Automatic annotation (TrEMBL):
Its EC number is 2.8.1.7. Belongs to the class-V pyridoxal-phosphate-dependent aminotransferase family. NifS/IscS subfamily. This is cysteine desulfurase. Residues 58-419 form the Aminotransferase class V domain. It comes from Capsicum annuum.
Length: 455
């Protein structure tokens, strides 16, 4: 209800960007701000020198997801009327905000089969990963000097491990198989008496593969090593049970499950108790692990998103699987030379990472401006280097450069999938027509057998 009122009010009061741009003085501060926004007219939208016919289709759900209107409805009262600080213990405004935060804590905990007392609110999965990796090793630094992770982890986990290496800790970066999955025997062999943490992502953000969590958890339990997982891409999409998986610490994010940006959570097991050294000092909120005022509206939104995910996970999963099959079959039926990156059997259906042979990757992305897709993680998308995740899988550099990640979600429609198929096929065919390599392949020439001369 609140979101509808707000949307109507904004429509009445907000002028179109192109008209604002024309009215502002050329050198005013406001002009500098608006000038960086897009311009829209009857022929389309222009932004950063690129003109497209309208707002692109959104198929980049791993980068972020749109907020569910029901989540926004739950949040709005805590922005407007119930705005108290949840740490104010002396009056009604603080009490009602505190009550809302604790209700949200219970909603997050229920989705992962945990106790509300084991949930710590943070600003997102990056902060939760930093607290987990650095915090555990710093707390147990006298006895534990070794971390095990994989080569395909999110950048914030890898960078946290490199930070520990600079402090004198040892890190083992496990390779993955060609399907993106961890070899359990290599994991077992890597564990040492001084191993303080195993950190392995539940669902990979680039290729969508689901690691064998219960088996990894059993190995960690056998050696009495804490097990951390980055579950930002798994929460609300696949069932999570922290007891069955023997998870000690788990990083969660709000904006990946149709909740607000800027909020996440860290699950920390109470029995047996896991201790971490706080990465930020302050007022001692969140059991002293994450100081700072808890943002009530964001936390309420995160809790509401978790409750919705728990109710609709099965329905969403069936629908997203059908859309993924429609996308994959639609592209495969019209063009060849397509490779699925990562395990086909063990993957989250909403993440489809494809490589297109004989196509230059940057040209393909530039040609798909009417579809919002990615070539990999949003955190590394500015780099022209091929994805380190795909390289870890052993994907050849030319194919890694042509990878496209399609992210399908709760609000994706069949019409959007069909349009994405048409645009992808048209662009790939267009680029292949200009490719001498593709011409040689069609003539039956084995490109790999050619000895190219150097000039």
């Amino acid at each position: 209800m609140f979101s509808k009122i707000l949307t109507t009010a904004l429509r009445r009061t907000t002028p179109k960007p192109c008209h604002v741009h024309r009215r502002l003085r050329r050198f005013s501060t406001a002009a500098a701000v608006v000038g960086e926004q897009y311009e829209e007219d009857s022929t389309g939208i222009t932004m950063k020198g690129v003109k497209i016919s309208g707002r692109p289709l959104y198929l980049d759900m791993q980068a972020t997801s749109p907020i569910d209107p029901r989540v926004l409805d739950a949040m709005l009262p805590y922005h407007i009327s119930q705005f108290g600080n949840p740490h104010s213990r002396t009056h009604f405004y603080g009490w009602e905000s505190d009550q809302a935060v604790e209700a949200a804590r219970a909603q997050v905990a229920a989705l992962v089969q945990a106790s509300p007392k084991e949930i710590i609110f943070t600003s997102g999965a990056t902060e939760s990963n930093n607290i987990s990796v650095k915090g555990v090793l710093h707390f147990y630094r006298d006895k534990k000097r070794h971390v095990i992770t994989t080569q395909t982890e999110h950048k914030c986990v890898l960078d946290s491990c490199r930070h520990l290496q600079q402090e004198g800790f040892d890190v083992t970066y496990l390779p993955v198989e060609s399907d993106g999955l961890v070899d359990l025997e290599k994991l077992r062999a890597a564990i040492r008496p001084d191993t303080g943490l195993v950190s392995i992502m539940m669902v990979n953000n680039e290729i969508g593969v689901i690691q064998p969590m219960e088996e990894i958890g059993k190995i960690c339990k056998e050696f009495n090593v804490p097990f951390h997982t980055d579950a930002a891409q798994a929460l609300g999409k696949i069932p999570i049970d922290v007891e069955k998986m023997n998870i000690s610490l788990m990083s969660l994010s709000g904006h990946k499950i149709y909740g607000p940006k800027g909020v996440g959570a860290l699950y920390i097991r109470r029995r047996p108790r896991i201790r971490v050294e706080p990465q930020m000092n302050g007022g001692g909120q969140e059991r002293g692990i994450r100081s700072g005022t808890v943002p009530t509206p964001l936390v309420v939104g995160f809790g509401a998103a978790c409750e919705l995910a728990m109710k609709e996970m099965e329905y969403d999963d069936k629908r997203i699987k059908a859309l993924q099959e429609r996308l994959l079959n639609g592209i495969r039926s019209k063009i060849d030379g397509i490779v699925i990156n990562g395990s086909v059997e063990r993957r989250y259906a909403g993440n489809l990472n494809l490589s297109f042979a004989y196509v230059e990757g940057e040209s393909l992305l530039m040609g798909l401006k009417e579809v919002a897709v990615s070539s990999g993680s949003a955190c590394t998308s500015a780099s022209l280097e091929p994805s380190y995740v795909l390289r870890a899988l052993g994907v050849e550099e030319d194919m890694a450069h042509t990878s496209i990640r399609y992210g399908i979600g709760r609000f994706t429609t069949e019409q959007e999938i069909d349009r994405a198929v048409d645009l992808t096929v048209n662009q790939v065919e267009k680029l292949r027509e200009m490719s001498p390599l593709y011409e040689m392949v069609k003539e039956g020439i084995d490109i790999k057998s050619i000895q190219w001369s150097q000039h």
